[in-house]
Write a structure and sequence with these properties.
Length: 132
C-alpha cells in the first residue's frame, strides 16, 4: 500500500474513533423449558456487527434456578445492536443443541432489559441446530 494512502486510511479510522461512543445494556431473565426452569444454560450477550463477527460483550451459564444477568458495553459510531444468544437442548434431538437469538429492544440500550421468562421450547425460524 502506498504510504500516502496508508496515512489517509489511518487518519480516517482515527476520525471514526472520535465519533464512537461507549454504550451499554444489562439483560436478565430466567430460562424455561416445558414449564420448568433450566440450569446451566449458556447465555451470551453479543453486539451484532454487519461487516465482521459479532462482538461478545458477556457470557455466563444460568444458575440452579435458570436465572442469568449480563452486563456489556461497546464503542460504536451508531447505536449498538445487542442480542442474547442461548445455547440449549430444550426440544432438541439427542446429541444436538439449539441456538436461539433474541434482539434487545433499542429503547433498553443504556439501561436494563428484563426478559422475565425466556421460553426455550418455542421454536422460531431463526433458531439454529448444531449436532455432534
Amino acid at each position: 500500500m502506498h504510504p500516502t494512502i496508508f496515512t489517509l486510511f489511518a487518519l480516517s479510522l482515527a476520525a471514526l474513533e472520535v465519533y464512537a461512543k461507549l454504550q451499554n445494556v444489562t439483560v436478565k431473565g430466567v430460562t424455561m423449558c416445558d414449564g420448568k426452569r433450566v440450569a446451566n444454560v449458556h447465555v451470551m450477550l453479543l453486539e451484532k456487527d454487519a461487516l465482521d463477527a459479532d462482538d461478545n460483550l458477556a457470557s455466563a451459564h444460568t444458575n440452579e434456578e435458570g436465572e442469568f444477568e449480563l452486563f456489556g458495553e461497546d464503542d460504536e459510531i451508531g447505536s449498538i445492536e445487542p442480542l442474547i444468544r442461548i445455547h440449549h437442548t430444550c426440544d432438541a434431538k439427542p446429541g444436538c443443541e439449539r441456538i436461539s437469538e433474541y434482539l434487545v429492544p433499542e429503547d433498553k440500550i443504556g439501561g436494563f432489559y428484563d426478559m422475565t421468562y425466556v421460553t426455550l421450547d418455542i421454536k422460531t425460524a431463526e433458531d439454529k441446530i448444531k449436532c455432534q
